[in-house]
Amino acid sequence: MIFSKKLITWYLQNKRSMPWRETNNPYPIWLSEIILQQTKVAQGLPYYMSFIEAFPTVFDLAKASEEEVLKLWQGLGYYSRARNLHVTAKHVADNLNGVFPVTYKDLLLLKGVGDYTASAIASICYKEAVPVVDGNVYRVLSRYFNIETPINSAIGVKQFKALAIQLMDHDDPADYNQAIMEFGALQCRPKKPDCFICPLCDSCEALKKGNVERLPVKLKKIKVKKRYFNYLIFYTKNHQTIISQRIGNGIWQGLYEFPLIESDTINKDTIVDHPVFKQVVENDEYEIVPYYSEPVVHKLSHQHLYTRFYVIKIDGLIKTNETQKKINTKDIRKYPVPILLSNFIDVFFK
Q1: Which major enzyme category is it (predicted)?
Q2: What is the residue-averaged pLDDT of the chain?
């Protein structure tokens, strides 16, 4: 039995039950693919269910505000995915009458849709014979053929894409693409796969050569940057605080946060001398209390954030500027925030 047929046979016997596998409607399939980018199924499934419940059609998602979308996305990370999701929903609803493009090439024109997502939608919804190549596929192919070309190199991307095109089942692209992804997730796992119950074990080159655990090969990641965040949590007797929305193209664009001082050296004197503190507190009585004795380390893909929280209790009223929002603390959970701040909010604003 050829490679593709073995995978499809395995898939039909072992596939997990997923709500997006019960339909050929491109909207839920597109939604699931965007959510599951760089996210495991166990983590992404609750988010998918929340989005489908809140926005059952692409028109519902298009009508939502960006804040609503970011709030539902809170905790998934890589927030540009959520913003692109919203932009594409509005484009499909407003410019395409709610109808998703039906070819791989046209799907690629949608914001936030790359080669993998376009291939998945085109093959599953429209039976177009275009192969998906994600982390699971790289792992399966690199092991089966014992390929040591780095998967995150330009040469590797081309090599694996060409191999994927050659191997895929052109008569059943939907099941084949889902099969190889599921096979990588469940059977050909990153660590300690059970090779001796694998339907491909008799022809797997990496297994024959003892290379399973060291494949696929990846080039070393770029150097991780350290950043030092110091959040000022102003807190009044009548339970008011300040937040503001992050702008620009950096991390967490569109999310809310407390006033921030980014510095690796900070103490109470530098806080008091900071313009934000002077603007908010003016001549009121205040008390500054570090909330944690050690910084909270929050790890992003290319950045590690060493974060401290300073609770500043003031007797008077909070003074804000045009970029700040004064809110009652009971309303703070209505705003989309980074998971780092969400965790703090859950502890401090009980």
Answers
A1: hydrolase
A2: 92
